């Protein structure tokens, strides 16, 4: 059980990193330093961006649930 949760945790962490990096910049941050600020002002929020937000949040919740479950299993292990 612990091994399965650890594998899910690693996969969720990698996917969450990829999904966060796929988001386009909202301007004013590091993305505008590399020229991303001009593009973010020209286009609005698309369906793809909204779906990417949803998938990122779901992946974050899975990651958080794995951390809590692993800590509970470790705390109550006999």
From TrEMBL:
The chain crosses the membrane at residues 6-22, 55-77. It is a multi-pass membrane protein. Keywords: Cell membrane, Membrane, Protein transport, Translocation, Transmembrane, Transmembrane helix, Transport. One of its GO terms (cellular component) is plasma membrane. GO terms for molecular function: protein-transporting ATPase activity. GO terms for biological process: intracellular protein transmembrane transport; protein secretion; protein transport by the Sec complex. It is found in: Cell membrane. It holds the Pfam family SecG. It comes from the Bacteria. Involved in protein export. Participates in an early event of protein translocation. Belongs to the SecG family. This is Protein-export membrane protein SecG. It comes from Corynebacterium mendelii.
């Amino acid at each position: 059980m612990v091994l399965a949760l650890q594998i899910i945790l690693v996969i969720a962490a990698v996917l969450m990193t990829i999904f966060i990096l796929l988001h386009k910049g909202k301007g004013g941050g590091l993305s505008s330093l590399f020229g991303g600020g001009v593009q973010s002002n020209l286009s609005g929020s698309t369906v793809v961006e909204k779906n990417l937000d949803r998938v990122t949040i779901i992946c974050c919740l899975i990651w958080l649930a794995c951390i809590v479950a692993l800590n509970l299993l470790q705390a109550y292990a006999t």
